[in-house]
Specification:
This protein is an all-alpha fold and about 190 residues long. It is built from eight helices and no strands. Belongs to the sigma-70 factor family. ECF subfamily.
Length: about 190
């Protein structure tokens, strides 16, 4: 009986969501965000990327809510949507990396390696920053580039100092991972074009 009631509750929630009820969407989000996030995290291995992709999945749910089928399991639908979104993310990432590799092969030979390495590093940093969720990127830029304190940024964004620290830690992990992955390319370019 409890399972039947839960299925009916889910159907009612989906009907309200399909009708465009923001409260139903918020309830849906809170009911499924944790399991969706953990599923995406298992596939990506990155907190920052998992957070961003999970956010994107729920935006997609809202944007395409009229197409939802209330007779279909919401959990199953979310699982499929999240998996496809992660695979699309990996395909796009591979495409970007392929384009970066092609562009690197077409770089003109330079006798002054320091500007090349600096430009490559700056571009990699910009690319890595673009992978961050918008708020995390803004927090990171305020602290790192504008040299504001965590307290100043917390006040500016209306969040706690600990939230700023969390944004900085997660942003730093992603940036280090991206830069570390591309470091070999940068060193190779510096060697080839010196």
């Amino acid at each position: 009986m409890a399972i039947h009631a839960r299925i009916n509750d889910e159907k009612q929630l989906l009907h309200r969501l399909i009708a465009g009820d923001p409260a139903a969407f918020e309830q849906f989000f809170h009911a499924y965000k944790k399991t969706t996030y953990h599923f995406v995290l298992r596939l990506t291995g990155s907190d920052a990327v998992a957070e961003e992709l999970t956010h994107d999945v729920f935006l997609k749910i809202w944007d395409t809510r009229e197409q939802l089928d209330p007779d279909r399991s919401a959990g199953g639908y979310l699982h499929t949507l999240a998996r496809n979104h992660v695979f699309n993310h990996f395909r796009e990432q591979a495409r970007r990396e392929r384009l970066t590799g092609e562009a690197a092969r077409q770089l003109p030979v330079s006798t002054d390696e320091d500007p090349l390495v600096g430009q490559e590093y700056e571009q990699l940093t910009r690319d890595a920053l673009a992978l961050l969720p918008p708020k995390r990127r803004e927090v990171f830029e305020r602290c790192r580039f504008e040299e504001k304190s965590y307290e100043e940024v917390a006040t500016e964004f209306g969040i706690t100092r600990d939230a700023v620290k969390d944004h900085m830690v997660k942003a730093g992990k992603l940036l280090r991972a991206v830069l570390r992955r591309h470091l070999d390319v940068t060193l190779l370019l510096a060697f080839l074009f010196r």
